[in-house]
Amino acid sequence: MAVFKPENVEDFYEIEDVLGSGHFGQVRRVRERTSGTCWAGKFLKIRKNACSRMGLDRVSVEREVEILQAVQHPNIVALKDVFESRSEVVLIIELVSGGELFDFIAAKENLLEIEAIEFLKQILEGLKFIHSRNIAHFDLKPENIMLSDNMSPHPNIKLIDFGLAHHFSPGEEYRSTSGTPQYIAPEVINSEPLSPAADMWSIGVITYILLSGLSPFQGDTDEETLKNILALSYEFNRQYFDSTSAMAKDFVTKLLVKNPSERMTAEDCLQHPWIKPITRIQAVHRHRSSINIKNFKRFNARRKWKMSYNMVWMCNRFVNLKLLCKGSTDPDPLQRDCESDVEDLDSKPASLLRRRLSSS
């Protein structure tokens, strides 16, 4: 049961600078008054009623809090406190100051596979832990893989943003069409029962990108990307994988499998010869092979540009929505019954996914 404190967060923490903003709130640096320790405060607007578009549903926030309280692990961002007011919930979480893993790698001049494996091992350890507790993340992507700091030669990986995560009950069939198109598994698109295996598909996509600087299923549109995923349409183009080891490609191949039950689990991945070599020759191949850092830098630059573009577009749309609301004759346009607030259960998965991209 998630515990929400009714006290004022400012009685316990000094609110400092803004670290980031999103659709439903912002993240600010906060300093604990008693110890002086810095944390991150995730300030979330809560929906006033079921029809309002402004804010998050309290039940979904409660679910995220319960999951974070159940997954204390070195490779998962820690939750310390939760405060609640009438219109806002504040999550006090571990301050992860090292930035995104992909940005850290893109700043390097070269990267051997053995170095990339050290990061993947930490990601897999975190997933192995949450999967052992019947929890799946369901939103694994570069933006949600962070570093505790970027000054250490061996920084610690932190998985963040459990807003789409789900805790499975025994015998439960869970379906969801939320996620970011290029990282989601086929069963998500088909609205089939989900399992932690969907996370392992995402790991396959992330590893493919890490090795080559290409996204395996990325199309010109979301619809094309989803079709490529369902068709399992990808290849190891020699131009981009010329310095990639055969073991690395085998690792990816055993994750990008359409049948969830046939994919490697996090435990299987940690025992794969690419991650844990059995012979001396396998270990040598990891040291001699490298990722395509030149193309990876280009991929990361495009990714960051797209994130910035989407943020500007969202802010402009939000401002326009506010202006429309001010000019409306309705008493409260954000609390009226309206079709756009009701989910269309007959919509195609692609349409639902477009509406829910990057819900965090």
TrEMBL record:
Enzyme Commission number: 2.7.11.1
Cross-referenced Pfam families: Pkinase (PF00069)
InterPro entries, sorted: Kinase-like_dom_sf, Prot_kinase_dom, Protein_kinase_ATP_BS, Ser/Thr_kinase_AS
Keywords noted in UniProt: ATP-binding, Kinase, Nucleotide-binding, Serine/threonine-protein kinase, Transferase
GO annotations of cellular component type: cytoplasm; nucleus
SMART domains assigned to the protein according to its UniProt record, in alphabetical order: S_TKc (SM00220)
Enzyme category, top tier: transferase
UniProt-annotated binding residues for ATP: 42
Protein name (record): non-specific serine/threonine protein kinase
